Amino acid sequence: MSEELSEILERAEIAIQQRDAVLVHKLCVNLHHADLAELYEDAHPEDRIFLTENLGSEKFSEILAELPDTLVEETLDSFQPHEQREMLHSLADDDRVDILQDVSDSKRRDFLEMLDEEKQKDTRTLLRYDEETAGGRMTTQVGKVLATMSVKDAIEHLRGDLESTSTLARIFVVNEDDKLVGKIRLRDLAFNAWDVAIKDVVQDIDHSILATADQEDAAYMISRYDMLILPVVDESNRLLGVITADDAIEILEEESTEDIEKGAGIAGDQSEETYLNTSIASHFKRRCGWLVVLGFLAILSGFVMMRFEHTLTQIYLLSLFLPMVVAAGGNTGGQASTMVIRAMALGELDPEDTSRVAWKEMRLGLLLGALLGVIIGIFAVFAPPALQFTLPAGVNFTQFGLTVAIAIAVQVATSTLIGALLPIGARAIKMDPAVVASPAITTIVDVSGMVIYFTVARSILAV
Amino acid sequence: MSEELSEILERAEIAIQQRDAVLVHKLCVNLHHADLAELYEDAHPEDRIFLTENLGSEKFSEILAELPDTLVEETLDSFQPHEQREMLHSLADDDRVDILQDVSDSKRRDFLEMLDEEKQKDTRTLLRYDEETAGGRMTTQVGKVLATMSVKDAIEHLRGDLESTSTLARIFVVNEDDKLVGKIRLRDLAFNAWDVAIKDVVQDIDHSILATADQEDAAYMISRYDMLILPVVDESNRLLGVITADDAIEILEEESTEDIEKGAGIAGDQSEETYLNTSIASHFKRRCGWLVVLGFLAILSGFVMMRFEHTLTQIYLLSLFLPMVVAAGGNTGGQASTMVIRAMALGELDPEDTSRVAWKEMRLGLLLGALLGVIIGIFAVFAPPALQFTLPAGVNFTQFGLTVAIAIAVQVATSTLIGALLPIGARAIKMDPAVVASPAITTIVDVSGMVIYFTVARSILAV
């Protein structure tokens, strides 16, 4: 955010707290609705009411579309019914649907009743699509012309819908059954003679998406093919609406945040609210699940430690490198799983690539393991001579260094492979790969690390 | 990716391996250049040469723009100089600049010499901007008209540049000094009478960005304000070019991948190549650094274990819950740091929010710690009576359960706070917050976890 904008927002915040309506108006009149939404979201509840009263319903219909789900209903409730009706009418249809999806069932019925007949019908149609599908995300406000028109007809036809059409960067050409047959660019209308036929300037549709498809697939298509607008169709190829590049940006950002959070063992849907505005209860709910599950899993490592009591108490110096051997597995396994999960999210890995991934990560694991083994082996032999007294008779430091080196090499190599393959395995059994991201991998390879370390120690040091 | 597309790509792959030029042509002729780039990138080196020979230089100029950095030079080298010249000329100027940034200095000089005078001058200007800035990312192919023109003048003026203008979704209005004074929409030209003056339809510019600004700021602006096109200006507000929504998508995807990778302790710039096409050496280089650093850090935990030898060997049952107490800190600290780092990346947290973050995470940490403490305390007391024999005389299971419960509660609470505050601290001293993501936090709270566990055990169990 620019410094200038931060400053305006800060001054507005103070003006709101001081109930200075004149200054608030002066500061807010030129702000973009995205900035106003932030101002509103960050304000205290009583300050929010002051804002709704002072900015007025017209300005607020745009702000409404930018608010997190949880704030939508109470915000609408602070307006009079006639204002609510105006706000709902002035919204773009995809924003209106989003908002109606965020309110309670009874409110939704009330709000739908407020709409005029045509808008009500359109809105009900859109509400049938799941929020996460292309249909649930599209806007029906699309520039549409018939193949039989001339440039002049098309311009006349579009002129009527001009106000309700969000973008004309692409105009779609349909036949009399509303089936998608092609696209033209607005420049084809602007720069051609009026008597040119649309069918002479129409271009083929390279990409469209079914309304029932996942919104992520739509965003992925827009991103891959550098599109501004993607047409959404039904099974009979009838044009239902469009998804625009700014929708794609929003979808991809949400997905990335979700992936990042899942990768840290944070469960549930990403909050639409900012970090600070999300309640403690909802933060708690999203974090406690994995924490408890992983906590119990970690007791397995404890059982391994119990089993090797004799080994550890005989050569207590082993404990100096125990956390390191164990943690190195978690770190390298986490790196491998993160790389593989991201590659899958970007659509780079097919199931048949599994053996290539395994071969790649096995070599990487051996290399990384060898590197750490050599470094730590040298360190173990040369660095801490002051600790030598704790070694029992018959064990020398070369043996000890070798133990640590071999253990860490084996641990890193196996953990790398486990980290890379578990997400692929998860996907194969239709689980979300992100579930086996770093924290789960770390806990799993903690157990294997203990077993590896103590087993190697037993056989080399003969304890 | 759609199944149909995957199938075509697979069939094309086989046709390439069989050197079936006719089938390759048939399969590839209708593919989008993004798909062809994937086909080319995934092919073996000798198959790539077959593809360049068979698809021809015209098709390849578009593919070139989609290739990862490392493939650009060798691909260009497989064409004749006159083909290289054609390819470089037919590229959009931002793509051409990207490509020239990817080749060696001497090649860059050669390729620049091939361009005609005007393109050479424009390209040299763009090459002056750093690759990561708005200027380095923009295209200069922008629709531009003068405020003094009429709609007719503007149409005539734009018609000349039509082929070289990538998008006309927004047309920018400048004065005689090329300074940005406003914008119009193409629809303002298409749907207005020819004698209407541009100054009567011009709209204010709400957002523009300096060419020297970070490309991320540009992408962030496009995303926040749902823009299709963002104008890029110099210090005197002269219009230099534009960044489009598809650039923003690319920038944001790169940033998200980088954040995800950094969060797993993977160093260095994200590879432009896919996971499978990235060499072992470059994977190795990006992963080994943190692995070694964290490995040595983990020895600190080992030192703590050594220090508490007496405590652990006296009540060896403590080892049953040692990994769990330690790991719970890593997991909760990782969750907290991930949430805070992502909130910072999305621009939600200012430095003055530190105390609010601390207050939030302290309460969360206490709640999560209390939850785990109670669950684990109950488990420790009731679950493993078979292990009771290892407790020394004078210690009962209630005391033992209390020890584990208190230790895990304290560990979770402090780790949550550390996880949330370290990234903020890192930013305060101008370090990248992502550096203290999960793996680093985990290693740090491993140490504190050991100290907490053994200290609590000592004081409650009096060993």
What's the name of the CATH homologous superfamily of the largest domain in chain A? SLC41 divalent cation transporters, integral membrane domain
Mean pLDDT of chain A: 87
Q: Using only CA atoms, what is the Rg of chain A?
A: 31 Å
Strand content of chain A: 5-15%
Q: CATH architecture of the largest domain in chain A, please?
A: Orthogonal Bundle
Q: Report, as a whole number of angstroms, the end-to-end distance of chain A.
A: 62 Å
Seen as an oligomer or otherwise, the chain set is homodimer
The largest inter-chain interface, given as chain pair and residues per side, is: A-B, 117 and 117 residues
Helix tally of chain A equals 21
Low-confidence stretches of chain A: none
What order do the SSEs of chain A take from the amino end to the carboxyl end, as H and E?
HHHHHHHHHHEHEEHHEHEEHHHHHHH
What is the name of the CATH topology of the largest domain in chain A? Tetracycline Repressor, domain 2
> What is the CATH domain class of the largest domain in chain A?
Mainly Alpha
Helical content class of chain A: 55-70%
Largest sheet of chain A: 3 strands, mixed
Shape verdict of chain A: elongated
